Automatic annotation (TrEMBL):
Any one GO molecular-function label of the UniProt entry: kinase activity
Keywords: Kinase, Transferase
UniProt superkingdom: Bacteria
Keyword Kinase included in the entry's annotation: yes
Matching InterPro entries: ATPase_NBD, ROK, ROK_cs
Keyword NADP: no
Lineage start: Bacteria, Bacillati, Actinomycetota, Actinomycetes, Micromonosporales
Matches recorded under Pfam families: ROK
Protein name, entry field: Glucokinase
Amino acid sequence: MRSIATGVVVGLDVGGTATNATVVDESGRFLVDRLVETPSCVLDGPAAALDALTRSVDVVLELTGNDRGAVRAVGLDTPGPSSAEGVLSAKGATNFALPEWYGFDIRTALEQRLDLPVVYNNDGNAAALYAHVVHFGADSARRSSISAIVGTGLGGGVIESGQVVKGATGMAGELGHVHIPMHGLLADGQPVPACNCGFSGDVESVASLTGIMKNLLPYWLTRYPDHELATLPIKQAAKLVRGLGERGDPLARAIFEQQAAALGRLFTIAANFTDPHAYFVGGGVVEAAPDFRDWFLDRVREHTHLREEQAKATTFALVPDLDMAGARGAALAALAPWVV
């Protein structure tokens, strides 16, 4: 990465309860090697959240021995849906459910509060950018990638020539709501899964914690009626599935096999309209035991149907440093405009 005018860039990854902050210097070196979390206060509304974001900036700057005068720009990410310019959806966004947030221009508001340039991405795009840059390094600007990040929902991003593809309204890369074929993915008698967005049979309806809770686990418990999870409330049970999957539990492995198949079908579709150099998977499976996450990534790869030429040219990998990927990706996006 080329140098910028002497200074640093701050990255902010805003969640429902906490904001993670990082700092990157003019060479692209991160000055923070761990989570630096402060309360996000988004549940208290915009005024409280902007105060909290300002505190996050000051905390991470103090930690790295910098002051506001050294900051050239701030990278900001939040969960979507939102516009490319950082205006939250008119119906609110994930973790931004209060009416005061509807249609709120969080990027401009923070820019005015800090009197610094602010560059906005949604959290999936930011993590996707970080995965891309870490994987390709100096070749980032000549490579493309797709990232799918499995969490409560399914986020992700599309990177082309090292740049986040945002689209006309900022909603490019909403991979969770891509419809995928269900034939051969669902078991006998398994209902077509429904998504919270109102779609049926999209990727998020299968490959997400919500998909496990609403769709997959209720079905598989009918196939394993004596399973230990059958006695628990479904929300509590859904959170235990990954741990059971790590231990090879047949019910849990059946669920994750379906999730891997869903991601493979998503990547198969992506192969035919973006033909990327790499496919990245992130989320809870990245934070799992190495044997399990390797098994899961292998299953995603096996469910992705590529032409021979594509298979030779592409790689499959996990999103690194997932807890820090959002803040770091946000910082890299804000660093780019200052490159000389």
